[in-house]
């Protein structure tokens, strides 16, 4: 299919394509609204469980590293421990809030972008399915990979 030649033919093609684009945009918007809460719950529960379960180990290891530092004097160790406490206390809260926002954003945008991805099947039913199951699978993969990365970090750091 060749592109149209001339300004008015291009404008005509634009207006012919516009309803198709708006229809896909609305379909993606509806899929995003349906799947955003599901993805948000998967990512929030998974990421929060990983980080909160390993938070005590991070706290113990952080204070151990500060207190065993040879370049810090005793007064400086106390000051650093006191200043580091708010950062450690706010870490789980920041992870929960970030997981909620990230889960909502990905849960809404993943199916929406999947609607515009070219379908290999070429069937109209695939437009309503594309991007939905992939988004659910990717959110589970993200939680699994986060768990692996955090555990590898902990196991290699605490040796």
Automatic annotation (TrEMBL):
Membrane-crossing residue ranges in chain numbering: 20-42, 49-69, 89-113
UniProt entry keywords in alphabetical sequence: Membrane, Transmembrane, Transmembrane helix
InterPro entries: At3g27390-like
Protein name: Uncharacterized membrane protein
Source species: Helianthus annuus (Common sunflower)
Origin organism lineage: Eukaryota, Viridiplantae, Streptophyta, Embryophyta, Tracheophyta
């Amino acid at each position: 299919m060749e592109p149209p030649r001339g300004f008015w033919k291009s404008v005509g093609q634009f207006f012919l394509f516009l309803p198709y684009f708006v229809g896909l945009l609305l379909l993606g918007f509806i899929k995003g609204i349906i799947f955003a809460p599901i993805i948000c719950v998967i990512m929030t529960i998974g990421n929060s469980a990983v980080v909160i379960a390993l938070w005590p180990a991070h706290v113990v290891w952080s204070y151990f590293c500060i207190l065993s530092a040879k370049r810090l004097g005793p007064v400086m160790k106390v000051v650093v421990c006191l200043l580091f406490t708010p950062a450690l206390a706010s870490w789980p809260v920041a992870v929960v809030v970030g997981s909620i926002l990230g889960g909502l954003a990905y849960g809404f945008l993943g199916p929406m972008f999947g609607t515009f991805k070219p379908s290999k099947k070429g069937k109209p039913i695939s437009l309503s399915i594309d991007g939905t199951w992939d988004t659910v699978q990717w959110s589970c993969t993200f939680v699994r990979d986060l768990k692996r990365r955090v555990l590898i970090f902990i196991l290699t750091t605490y040796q």
